Amino acid sequence: MRGLDVAPGWPCQKPFANGAKSAFIKSWWGVLSMANPAHVAKLRDGVEAWNRWREQNWNVKPDLSGLDLSNEKSFKRTALWDSATGRINLAKANLGWADMHGANLRNVGLQEANLVEANLEGANFQGANLNNATLESANLSQANLGDATLIGANLKSANLDKADLRSAHLSGASLENASLIEADMRSVQASAADFSGADLTRADLWTANLSGAQLVATNLEEANLIRADLHKANLKDAILYSADLRDTNMLGVNLDHAGVIGIKYERRFMPGKYQGIRGVESAYGDAIFRRDALDQDYIDTLALRWRRSPMLVVLWLWSLIDYGRSMVRTVWIATLIVAAFGFSYMVNPSMVELVSSEKTWFSPYYASLITFTSLGFSNQVAGHTATGQMLLAAESALGYFTLGVLLAILMHKIARRS
Q1: Measured in whole angstroms, how far is the alpha carbon of residue 201 from the centre of its chain?
Q2: How far apart, in whole angstroms, are the C-alpha atoms of residue 247 and residue 232?
Q3: Which residue in 130, 205, 298, 365 has the fewest CB atoms around it within 10 Å?
């Protein structure tokens, strides 16, 4: 090799530049790491020269651990500097199997670069451009990929455990069978990305965009999906045990044979976010969630159909009692109706009065309660004016309707088994 003496044996052994020892370089994360000076020098010659050297020395494992490529002054006059973009350009560089743990590649251009099985543990890729790069089986555990762009990147079987992917762009990326355990993926943009078979256990996906993503057989156990967008995502056979789906957009999601045991959700966040959900019937686990998801799909469909119709008012009134599912809300509304009519009787005592009963401050409310619950068959309340008689008739009708609603909810809760 030109200018390089390689120690005999396994090709992973570090080469030395004319016998000189490798230099210690302090990485961005504060750990002293070794990078081979000869390898660094060869990289400074530019991508074309580097790739030729890799082809000629295919058995050498490059050691660029701890290399700081964020220092513009050190590389501005080298072949790596791209004056058009104002950043270091490693596009299409062959860095496969390289040891780059702890390296600082902040804002570096790595489009279409080969990083297959590279050791990138703890590396800093913040703001880097990795569009269409190949990182298959690479070790990116605890790496910082915040704000990095990985559109169309190949991350199949990559290790991204505890990696920082906040606001990263992963649209169309391939992450099949990747490990993203406890990865920080808040606000990640991963529409149409493929996570099939990936492990996202305890991953933080708060406000993540996963619309149209493939999550087939993906492990999302205890994942945080609060306010995430899963619009038309495919979660067939996915594991969602104890996942947090509060305020998650589930429009058109496929849950065919998905596991929803112990799932976290709240009905108050569901309206408008479950229309077109599929495969709920075949999902297993939380039967209440499955029932609520199907109910919300029906409610959302009605809301869409009636959005420009007077029936939308009926839907709003229905929502006041949680669409016929809440007995507590219905009782509260009944109480408010009785109180409102009782107050009107108190303000205008000449309209309505109790017959053969001693009058007290509570008499108007007592008259209202009797009218509401007796369905108009009481002879203890009399209307002395036309307005009073109309109020009594209206309250009696409301009482009849409310009682019917309460009975329907009660029967539904007692008799329903699935």
Answers
A1: 13
A2: 16
A3: 298
CA distance linking residue 301 with residue 82, whole number of Å: 53
Query: Which residues lie closer than 8 Å to 365 by C-beta, 6 or more apart?
Result: 338, 339, 342, 343, 345, 346
**Euclidean distance between CA atoms 125 and 35, whole angstroms:** 18
Tally the domains of the chain.
1
Beta-carbon count within 10 A of 309 CB: 11
**Residue 164 in 3-state DSSP?**
strand
Query: For 31-173, where are the alpha helices, taking DSSP H only?
Result: 37-44, 47-56, 72-75
Tens digits of per-residue pLDDT, 192-215?
999 999 999 999 999 999 999 999
The token pair at 358 is 């001693």
How big is the CA angle at 312 (ends 309 and 313), to the nearest 5 degrees? Answer: 120
**pLDDT tens-digit readout, 213-246:** 999 999 999 999 999 999 999 999 999 999 999 9
**Please, are residues 104 and 67 in contact by the beta-carbon 8 Å criterion?**
yes
Cα–Cα distance for residue pair 345/341, rounded to 1 Å? 6
Alpha carbons 265 and 267: distance in angstroms, whole number: 7
74 pLDDT more than 80: no
For 138, 265, 269, 293, 300, the CA distances from 323, given in Å and listed in that order, are 50, 17, 14, 13, 11
* CATH code of the domain in which 383 resides: 1.10.287.70
Bridge partners, 33 (sequence order): 25
Q: Which of 144, 225, 215, 230 is nearest to 177 (CA)?
A: 215
Provide the domain limits for residue 381. Answer: 327-415
Summary count for the chain: helices (H), strands (E): 8, 8
The reply to whether 335 falls in a domain is yes
CA 200 to chain centre: 11
CA–CA dist 296, 255 (Å, integer): 15
Residue 345 inside a domain? The answer is yes
